[in-house]
Amino acid sequence: MEILKNKKVLQDFIERQKEMGKRIGFAPTMGALHEGHLSLYKAARQENDLVISSIFVNPTQFNNPEDLEKYPRDTQRDLDILEKSGLVDAVYLPQVEDIYPEKTESKKYNYDGLEDEMEGKSRPGHFDGVGTVVEELFNQVKPNNAYFGEKDFQQLAIIKKMTEKKQLPITITGVPIYRAENGLALSSRNQRLTEERRNDSRIIYETLLKAKEWFKTLAISDIKEKVGTIFDNKHNMELEYFLIADEKTLKETGQKENGNSYRAFIVVNVDGVRLIDNMHLD
Ligand code: PAF
């Protein structure tokens, strides 16, 4: 596996690969790699000649400085995981100045309103930070295909929108959520939970499964009430939001309409760790 330590080294590498006509699959990450990331690389392997990943903890997408500080960073561990997986041909480890040559700040994006929903409300500026880093990485890596997890479903929709609006010649693929045996969606943040709390957190997945079942017969307001009750009595767990949204616009819906697709979205704080999950409903 090639380790590309800065933009110059990356660009030379990409130029050589493009000359050889290689199709590049790309999965950007912020490190703290887990099975969820490996599932992105597996999807990329099937459709490309070359799989590239990047590890960069992007400062502009953290609206909370404490979250940025606490974000797990262990590059050697990540490189060992990548090497052992045998799924990745090259990993790009940009320096901050490779992504932000001048100021470390976001550009402003208009994602046709997708940015105003859910995480956009809870984390102001977050999606400008994501758009900025992903657009820059796309420009440098020049992939044919790029892969993102459905766990961050709104991020995936926003990156698709950005790619379409900027007319970038890249196909964006969403990869299904990778879950632990108890159903908890894998996330780098899970490392911050004790084993007991990780086990308790299976309730998030169980709640989504129940919501999917209730969605067949109950009104959306009743589903929301039932979900609220589940978390009312839970110590160490605080439901930040649960809602059902149109899968295309990501706007919260109060009533099902025929012909639309819906998805349930949930955010729960467990001992101060913010866990996010979602599930397609119909
Ligand atoms: O999903 C992530 O890990 C990040 O938001 C991404 C897409 C790598 C951008 O920093």
From TrEMBL:
Pathway: Cofactor biosynthesis; (R)-pantothenate biosynthesis; (R)-pantothenate from (R)-pantoate and beta-alanine: step 1/1. GO terms for molecular function: ligase activity. PANTHER family: CYTIDYLATE KINASE/PANTOATE-BETA-ALANINE LIGASE, PANTOATE--BETA-ALANINE LIGASE. This is Pantothenate synthetase. Pfam families: Pantoate_ligase. ATP binds at residues 30-37, 149-152, 186-189. The gene is panC. It catalyses: (R)-pantoate + beta-alanine + ATP = (R)-pantothenate + AMP + diphosphate + H(+). Belongs to the pantothenate synthetase family. It comes from Chryseobacterium taihuense. The reaction proceeds by a bi uni uni bi ping pong mechanism. The active site is at 37 (proton donor).
